[in-house]
Amino acid sequence: MTVGIVGYGAYVPRWRIKSASIAEIWGSDKERIGSLVGEKSVASLDEDTVTMAVEASRSALLRAGINPKDIGAVYVGSESHPYVVKPSSSIVAEALDATPELTAADLEFACKAGTAAIQIVMGLIESGRTRYGMAIGSDTAQGRPGDELEYTAASGAAAFLLGAEGMLAVLDDTYSYCTDTPDFWRREGEEFPRHGGRFTGGPAYFTHVLAATKGLLEKTGTTVKDYDHFVFHQPNSKFPLKVAEILGIPKEKLAPGLLVSKIGNTYSAASMLGLAATLDIAKPGEKILLTSFGSGAGSDSFSITVTDAIEEKRGKARLLKEMIDAKQYIGYAEYLKFRKKLKGVLA
Amino acid sequence: MYEEKAVAFHWRGFKERYGLLGSKCESCGRHYFPARVICPGCRRKGKMKGVKFSGKGKIYSFTVVRTPPTGFEIFIPYIMAIVDLDEGARVVSQVVDCKPEEVEIGMQVESCFRKIREENKSGLILYGFKFRPARKSNLSEGKQL
Amino acid sequence: MKLPARDVAIIGVGITKYGEHWNLGLKDLITEAGIKAIQDAKISGNDIELIVGGSMSSGMFVGQEHTGALFADQMGLNPKPAIRTEAACASSSVALRVGVMAIASGMYDCVAVGGAEKMTDVYGSQATTTLAGAMDRDNEAYFGLTFPGVYALMAKRHMHQYGTTREQLAMVAVKNHGNAVHNPHAQYRSPITIDEVLKSPLVADPLRLLDCSPIADGAACIIIVPAEVAKNYTDTPIYIRASVQASDTLGLYMRKDITTINANLHAAKLAYQMAGVTPADMHFAEVHDCFTINEIISCEDLGFCKKGDGGKIIQEGETHIGGRIPINTSGGLKAKGHPVGATGAGQIVELVEQLRGEAGKRQVAGAETALAHNLGGSGSTVVIHILSRNRGKV
After folding, report:
1. What is the pTM of this model?
2. Which domains does chain B have, with CATH numbers?
């Protein structure tokens, strides 16, 4: 059975902080950092992984135009679920009015939890167990104050409603590559993550992204020339462009899906938002290759073909560009208040 | 810190607060939020049916709260408004994603899903609807989303 | 609603000073007001057959429910029956109304009514939360609206529809503080200026700190008897010519036009009818100024001016002492204080002192008939009393 994307949705909060505003406080080189990421999105005080997941998945539902009660599965991938125990997915399912006949669970695999959700839903649909399923990647990632990840850790959500009918893009195939590579982690009870510094590059990001992408090409019998658009996980603007260089992909083919300099690294939503931005402009018949990366580590790679239905469905919900452009800047002090990094704040 | 209500109190309102669900009286056509058992206009002659509001509306009046009740301390200052929903019902809700100076009586708004507040650090997180300034779609359809 | 089978008259009143009484508890406030009223009426405690006392939230403020029992116990009046009435800020005028109905029914001949509130044993945000119980808890307070926020919404709309100005709201506060200078029971007794009001911190735009009545502790008590025997007790009985009540939606948002309070209109119509008078016959009035905007809105609803002119009449001095219709000669809730459960009874005390000619420097010359307007929440309960020196026609 062919399975594909029946509806997709994206959500980026309104607030932005310039990397220069953060660099100023810590005395860092504004220009060097500015070249890696210009500004990032910041969730409001009243937003979290769940609220953004709801916004994104409601947009996906608008594009799909199906009865929410026909959604048989909801998975939310994140590394900033608001509860440690109590699923985000059941709240999202209730807000979508998909309850009560469905399965749901939360996932965590750093920045690839959302694409793992896509693969799980693919399996449910291909096996005929479920008619439609929602796979969501959503995060309000936290960076330790003063750490380099503070410049990029951002907030956002992307949702994909998958099914076998009314697809606006077909998921031709998927290939994954996973090893125990501890490049970035956070222990129970700790507020901020830790990482392996430069180790997060070669042995982690590049090894897995390249292996997964090459594996997918081999599995599908395609080469990079067969694809019109590429989306790679984007922890900063340098890494995905380096992957493109290594694989011989022209930079322009990454452009629509490369959002990190404008909204930062939205973790579980990152590569999925890149895909959403690409779907916002892709033409029927075009092929997209997406490879995510999650620290810990693993990559999921997908071959996607856009169908005729994209033109009609795309306009039914807000385009990502509009959300990216509808921004309001805050300074570092407001950023600390929003991200609740201040001690003694009530609730 | 203040006394929390037991979960059932909050849980009962999840569906109506997540989905902006109310009721409509089929006898007189009036809409209500939240859903009512009795139509104040028709009483016994009324016939109430569940309804899901589109979330589109206009601001009827608004204020900026600066002295918070317990649980809302971190949000001040925040904008509260009475919103006239397109269907005819009215709700009280917070207006987000804009500055107090940008709010006007008559402004078009659309609903969104946000956190209302947390029941202390260890209690439930309460979600529900709020309103933000309405935005138009990019496409030539000009359809309001 | 019919006229009472028996008329009722007031023979004695007692009131505590309103303010932050750190050294007085709820019991102390109750006994002070009660003793003063009994002494003023020159009766014995044994003469009292029924107690009706108001308290908005003794439960949330001091953890004490069953306040009726507290009133009777503290006044040493066991085993006489005691009723607690609750209608948010209108609790004690409802108490008076119940007392009037008890006497009118013929079942009781001497009733002590009143109210008490102890608001300063909780912290600020807890008081805000408690007062929000007067609004629609599930649909207004749940989402973060506060009580000042409710009136701010009304003010915003009134300014939008009628052009009422920020300065006119401030004038209400200035007038009432000016009146309170001459009221020994008042919480705040120094004058303020419009400038001070306009510079005070914002509470809920456009309302500022000095637009809002203060949190206070206080109690008031009134002794009532059938009108036909009032002269046995005192040479200056004050007759209750109307005692009416009306309701409106709990939530402000449920009303079509939030610049007017329906319950005000209904109660006012009934009250004037019952007393056989018109608004022009009132020599002065106590009007529920929990927030400055409400004095403006309610003066319109009570018929003291046209709808929308509430700001105009204060600007033109018509509601000052010496003007056409003095409003809140006591200093109102704004300057006298607003110990919610006691407020309504306190308004009656002002009316009685004025009508007896005992109001000193705030005396309204020739005062014979007056109106007390007390409301709960955003006007979900409205109680109006019309009192007069004259038993029959004005």
Report:
1. 0.91
2. 55-135 (2.40.50)
